Each structure stands twice: as C-alpha cells, then as structure tokens.
Amino acid sequence: MTPPVPSTQTRHLLNRFSYGVTPALVQESEARGGAQNWLEWQMQPQAVSDSYADGLKAWFPYLSYTPGKMWQAHLADQRSASDLMYDFARWTILRRTYSQRQLLEVMTDFWSNLLYIPAPVDRAWPHRVPYDQVIRSHALGRFSDMLVAATTHPAMGSFLDNAESTVWKLNENLGRELLELHTVGRTSGYTEEDVVNSARILTGYRVDINDSWVAFYSPDDHYTGAVKVLGYSSANTDPDGRDVAKAYLRYLARHPATARSIARRLCVRFVGDDPSLSLLQSVAKAFKSSGTDIKQTLRAMVSHPDFAQAVGAKVRTPSEDAIATYRALDVRAIRPSRTDDFANRVTAQTDFMGQRPFDWPRPDGSPDVADAWTSAGRMLNSWSIHRSMSVGATAGADYRSRASWLPALPARFDTVVDHIARQVLACPASSALCDAASVYAAIPRGQIITTADTLTNVRMAALMSTLLNSPEHMTR
Amino acid sequence: MNTSVEGTCGCDEFRTARRTFLKGTLGAAGVIATSGLIGDVFTQVAYGVETGTNVLVVLSLRGGSDGLSMVVPHGDPDYAPARPRIAVPATQLLAADPMFGLHPAFAPLLPMWDADKFAAVQAVGLPQPNRSHFAAMEAVEDADPGSAERRGWINRMVGLMAAENPAEAIQLGTPMLPTSLYGSAPTLASDRLSSLRLPGPSDPTWQGRQEEALTGIWSSVDGPLGRGALSALSTTQNLASLATSETRPQNGATYPDGTLGDTLAETATLLRADVGARVVTIDYGGWDMHTGMGTVAIGSMRNQINELARALSAFFTDLGPTGDRVTVVTLSEFGRRVEENGANGLDHGYGNCVLVLGAGVRGGQYYGTWPGLGTNLVSGDLAVTTDYRSVLAEITSSRFPEASVAQLFPSFRPQSLGFMAQA
Known about the structure:
Number of helices of chain A: 25
Oligomer: heterodimer
Distance between the termini of chain A: 26 Å
Structural class of chain A: mainly alpha
Strand content of chain A: under 5%
Number of strands of chain A: 8
Shape of chain B: globular
Largest interface: A-B, 65 and 69 residues
Structural class of chain B: alpha/beta
Number of domains of chain B: 1
Radius of gyration of chain B: 23 Å
Radius of gyration of chain A: 24 Å
Largest sheet of chain A: 2 strands, antiparallel
C-alpha cells in the first residue's frame, strides 16, 4: 500500500511545530481531528503522555544533581563541567527527537534562544539544568511570568554578571541585555541612564559563585533610591528590592515595544525571515491584549493568512536538520554505555554541522535566518551527516531494516523512491528526486526491483541521502 | 550493470543542467572555458580565477576589545588614573612613542612592528556610538547605514571585483556566514578545509554520480538555500585537492593552541594554494571583559592579546613569500569604557584601535587623531576621530584598486590616513 501523506497545509503546520513530520505524527494529527486540533492538544502538554522522553534524563544521571553537587563532581574529576553540559545538550537533542510533546519542545527551544544562556559557560553551568526547567514550565504560559523567573534566576545572574553587581560595584551587563535582547529592543529609545537604572533595579540577586552556588538575595547590595527606566519609575526605598524588580520586569514584559520584538522573533521563527507588517501587528496585538499569553499569541500567528502561505519558507538550522534526520530515518536511541554510542554522538554530530545546542557563545541566541545557515560549508556538513545516518552504522541505536522501507516487490525503482520519500519526507517524490536517486544509486527509474538485495547498502544509502539532501528535507 | 545504467539514466540531461548551473554560479562574464570546469581544481583556477591576487584577512575581535589596553595611551595624563587596578604600566610597553605603546603581550609581533609591517590606528569606530554588541556588529559589517538591503560590505567588495567563485570571500572557523558576507555574491563559510568535499565513497564514479544527483535536485532552487547548495557543489570541484591537502605549518611556524591558531593555519594553507581567495574573515571572540581582566602578568586580557600576537606571528611565518600579498586588519564592534568598573573589568565603550599587518602596511607607527581622555570623552568613552570605513577604504584603494570605494561604502567620504602604501 502506498503510504499516505498529509495535505500540504497539514504537513506545513506539523513541520513548523515539531522537529520533523513522521508517519506516526501524521497519524497522531489525524487521530486528533486534524493539524489545528493537534496544535490545541499540544498546547496542554500535561495532557500528552510522554513517559519515554521523560525517562531520557536518567540516561545522564549527573543532570539530576543539585548545582552544589555538580560543582563537587566537577572538582572531584567525576564529571567535568564541560562533560556535564555535553550531557545537557545530548539530553536536549534526544528529548527534541523523541518527545510526544513536540510543541513544548519547540517552544522551549524558542524561548531558550531568546532568554539565552550558553552551556557550558564559565559561571552559569551549575544552574543551567534548573534554568531549562524554568523556561520549559513557562514555555506555553505567560511571557511576563517567564521573564521574571528567568531574569532573577541564578543561571542568568551568573551568565550576565548580575550575581556580582552591587550598589557599590554596579555591572550593567544584564541590565542592558534585558532591555536590548530580552524585551523592548533598541528601537524603543531607552538611554544609557535607563541602562544604569535597569542594572540598579536588579542589584541584590546574588549567587555564591565557585563555592556553594547557593542563590540568595542580599538587601545590603541592593541599590536604593529613585529609579526610572522608560515609563517605569519607583521610589525604590526598601533595601529588599525584589518587589521593585518584579514590577519592573512585568512592566517591560507588557511594554508595546516588547510585544513588537517578541512578535518579530516568533514570526521569523515560525513564518518566514521577512515577516509582513500586517502579520507582525496581528501577533503583537494578540501578545499585548492577552497579557503576554503565549498560546493566544501562537493562535493569532497561525490564523493569519501569511502563515498558510509560508510553506517551506524556512531553512532548517543545522541542529534542526540533525534532529529531523533522526526522526525521518526513525533512528531509535539505546541508553548509551560507550562514548561513541549514538546518544552520546549526537553532540559530536551537531558540532560537526556547526550548531550544537547551547554552543552559540553570545547572549543574542543562535541566528534563525537562511542567510546565516546556507554557506557551502553548512550544506556539505549537513550532507555528510545525512550520508552517515543513512548508512545506519552508528552504534547504540536501532535502525529500521532495509526491507521495512520498501513497497511490495516487484516494483519499479521510481515507485520504490516514492514509497520511501512518503515515509522520510512526508510528501511524494518529485520527478527531480526520482531522477536524482536514480543517478546516484545507479539504477534506472524504470528498472523493476524484484528483491531487496538489489538495493545494496551503498545504493540504499545513496537513495536515502538523496532524499535527505533535498530542499524538501532541508526546509520546514 | 553499471555500464548499462550509465547509458540510461539521463546523463546528457544532467550534464546540461550542470553546465547551466555553473554558468549561473560562476558569472556571466564567460571567463571560464567549459572544458576546464570539471576536474582538477588548479586547471579551473588557471582558467577562471586570477592567481597571485592580493588578500585581505579580516579578524573580528568579537565582544568589544579594549583598544586602550592594546595600544596604550601612556602619554595621556588621564589614562592611568582612570584605571587604578588594570592600567598597563608605561614602563612595560613595547614600541613606545611619547603617547602610545603596545601591551607587552604583543611581544611576538614586535619583529613585524620593527620591520614596518605592523601599524595601529587609534580612536576608530562607528560614526555614532552604539554600545550594543549585536547592533554594533551588524552596523560594522553592513557598513551601509540607512540602507535596508541585507548585504555585508565584504559581499559588496567581492561583488565589485566581479566575484565568480565562492572561494573569493571565505569565512573560516565556522560554517555560519557572518553578516559581512551576507548577500548575492557567492561566498563560502566552512569550519575546516577538510569539510569541503562531498560525503560518501571517495571512488570517483560514486562521487560523480552524487554530484550529478545533487546538481539535478538543486540547480533550479532559488534563494539562499539554492545558492548555498550550488556554492557547495562548485566549491567541491574548485577546492577538492585542498580538502585533502597537508595543513602542516611551513617555515617552522608554531601556532598557539586554540581555534584562532587552527583557523589561521588553515587560512595559510588556503592562501598558499592560491585558489583565488580575496577576503578571508575569521572570528576571534572572548573580548567582552566585564570582570577580572587581570594585569600584564596574568589574566584574560594578557592571555587574549598574547594568543592573538602568537597566532598572527605564526601566520606570517607560515605564509612565507605568500605573505607579501596578504594584509590583516582587526575590527571590533566597539571599544570599552575609559574608567574601570567595580569588578576589575570594563563596560561597553566606543572608540577603539585597529591593528593592520602585512602587505602594503607602512608600519612601525601609530596613526589616527588622538582626542584625549580628558574633556573629549563621549559618555565616559574614548571619542571616535576616524570612521572605521576610512580604514577599510584605505586598505581597499591600496590593495584592491579594482573595487570602487564609492560603491563599497555608499555616501561615505573617506579620510586619508596614510598607513597604507599607495597602489
């Protein structure tokens, strides 16, 4: 039987809100009554059973350590900071690959790239895993709540130096990036004096860095006295400035300029690299009028006509490409026992492709536009990973048998290509793809394939990598 | 079976497609004979790409480097008092004149300074202060204020030189393109030269089949992804022998450990191979020193400058005679505040220094107009007296006279600085 493929619009929506459309995802969407209903279902992640992905964290036992215990493990040469953060990236890649809560994973990825903290980074790493949980817990909630939790989190304070900023030794780093990158953006017109006041408001959130790693609030270190940033002002007389900081962060979250920044970021991620003004305005309006409700904002974006017209308009970044490749080939990871097992190799593979999760070093987050990710080097690296995964020889994973991909034989070679494309790409094979697979596998399109043995390993890898090296796979 | 297969799977059709795509990628100028396209990289280069051309290496000091710790204004009475804990002592400076001196960690480059191959320009920057890393970086790399076009200055530059080959502008060290390379002229980014080959069996028959297959899929795809794919395909043809070439340093050069050294070593290999590279961009991050910069004896600033100096010194040693056509310029998004902060670090500032090394440089001197650290500060930062585009314009007109500066930096009138020999 020819594998069914979703409609163009179903494939489009599933592609944007998952890490790659698989036959199982298509079935799930049908079972929920269509892609829109699937999206609504995914918006309540607690209703989606996900026991397999929940169990992945146990594959990397050190990730469940407290920050203090992680530090001890690092000092005792049990598990270095770098290895711990590689574990974190591995766990992240596997979760993105296998979670049934695809929307939650996609949105956690999105917000993690906005309120961005690299891993490893000198002083934020012991708090990096708990920080991930904070982002995750708010990823489909309210931005204002997420902003408060993220900005005051010890991981953010350690990364952008606020953990050491005091009334005596003010450090502007977080105060500035909060305005520029996390909320209103430069076009809002804040001044250098606003940056100083932003930093002053945030003083007091300390971390016992390189020791217990305990986070604490220190009223002695908090700047008191009148502060004003854009339209926010406070007499700020209480040495416990936490209420002032939270009020300030909620003010920023609800600022119209923040709605514009977040709308742009969402639309670039989920619609296209150059979103229209009409789309941006609709999304910003939904964000603002809903009190920064993320679900409402997503609904406004998806229901705008631009969304439906943006089929295939986004280039997959290298790490999205890697994950989509694992999903397309139905590579099933096994709990790793050796360093070169698949579950451990995923970081090396994404490194090789140029985008290991959380490797981007700067607080602005990894770029999400085609211009950044379409160099010759990127293409060749992606093609190389497609090829090696197509061979299916990486240890520590189960692969589908060759025969399981094939239609009932005998069948024409181009029928075989189409049959596999429907499973790997969730769309029929174009004539160009059939031609290309025929050239690379060195089998004429019209040749009748009578046994699976005709498709030797090298020919099957040629066929599979041709599908993965195509625009159909490299865009979403 | 193979023989019969090759006769029946449309090879002629694919050859046509490939010819069309190569014409599109390599430009309409027709300087490349079709017969030279496929096969040996150097044949192709000989046909289509000028060899022995001048090369610019743009080293981006990402994070905002502190120019006042690199080219130290020891003669300015306001320098040392502003930095009680982190000022570089005047007695330890290298190549000092009455106003400036180099941080002692530049010692590996002192021979180039003494040989007049290394110069510094002080108080350089964007025309307007911009203390945001990201906005400043984009402004520097776009270098066309007011234009909505997403096109970087290096892309414009190779475009003005009739770029036909993605190898003319190359980012090494990462496969991600920097904004300076964004745009319609073909460019290339790669983490390492050994990546520049098609995957799979190296047997030429299989490589050829794969190349035909990919050409068939991608030759009609528009936009950045299609451009990237075609650039990848032509790169593997043009640079195939480079991907497997020896990258061992020559002339006894020893690079420091780390990605800067690795990337400069690969750059030297690339430039020695003479495959038509005009501009190579390299990122060297880690300059955002808000805390704990350290002293001349120990700490992150000393280490960072020393790694830079050792890597560049090794690079020119490694290049040997090829270095006679290679100019290196450093750029950073902004300098840092004059006054040290409470954490032995420096917050974001404005004016900065630019270092220029190699071919065409009239070195052993400090250039620029010093605004002073007294009353002329801009919100506590060194003022800018030289627009960074003047620096780039001077290098361009000296080394790449075929690229029109007026088109490279539209509506900008550069000032002459004198640090480059005239073309």
